[in-house]
Specification:
The chain is α+β, with helices and mostly antiparallel strands. 20% of the residues lie in helices and 49% in strands. The chain has helices at 6-14, 51-58, 87-92, 97-110, 112-123, 207-212, and strands spanning 18-24, 27-33, 35-38, 41-47, 61-68, 71-82, 135-149, 152-157, 177-185, 188-196, 202-206, 220-230, 238-252, 255-269, 272-277. The longest helix has 14 residues, at 97-110.
Amino acid sequence: MPALDPTGQSLLAEGRQLHVGVLTTTGPHVTPELYTYDDGNLWFLTAADTLKTRVVRRDPRVAAVVRVGSNSLLVSGIVTDYDIGDPLRLLTQARDALRALAALMSFAVRNAADLAAFARDLAAGRLQSRLPQRRVLMRLVPDRVVLLDGTALVATDGEWPGRVTVPDDAPALVGDIDCVVGAETADGMIVLPGRASEDLAEATVPAVAVQLADVAIDEAVRGGIVIDDYRAPGPAAKRGELIRGRLRFELDDAQCRVRLDGERDTTWAGAQVSTTAL
């Protein structure tokens, strides 16, 4: 991982969820994941049959953000998956076995409360199946990093395609609720911290990150806005919504306003997930 100052390392230690974005054939798809990290990698687990898993096997480029209070760490890079359901492929990854095993152990310790709550939800029948889904271990090796305090740029590393021209000030983001915005860019996608309106039709995000990622301004781009209510450990306690469609970014000094023309709305409440066309 590109070098992080102590604030970035502290943010990873304190953060609870990593919002991971993949670029599907219909645009960016962003969802939260529990994670762990080591020197140079972010690790997370996802179900083997999810859209995210299918996409990264076709296109391993991903973007992600960890957010704690006003601080946010944005990364983009390449993902490698380790799937016990594909033993032949695992043989070709044997050189990574010790590091992957250490990551699994770190993940279990770091997320012990969530894993225990998952077991309780499973035993109590609060999930769709009493059998746990097969999980795939994902290793994200970032090649670009941005650290933000609100809308202010704290540090950056790696080669970002854009150039920053917005004012060097740091107004608070405007909106009703914390959100994450995923947007397609010329070389992939970016995942941004933001504040959204209650109906998720609008949001504000840091303009400096928009410019670094070279997001198109005043043009329709594919993307979405996601909110996730981490009420308590365990999947049964989770509530969230992801609206995908077309985004339009409008610079407003150090903030960037985002307007969403939604096409699909996905909601989750515990194990219940539904998607509807808008």
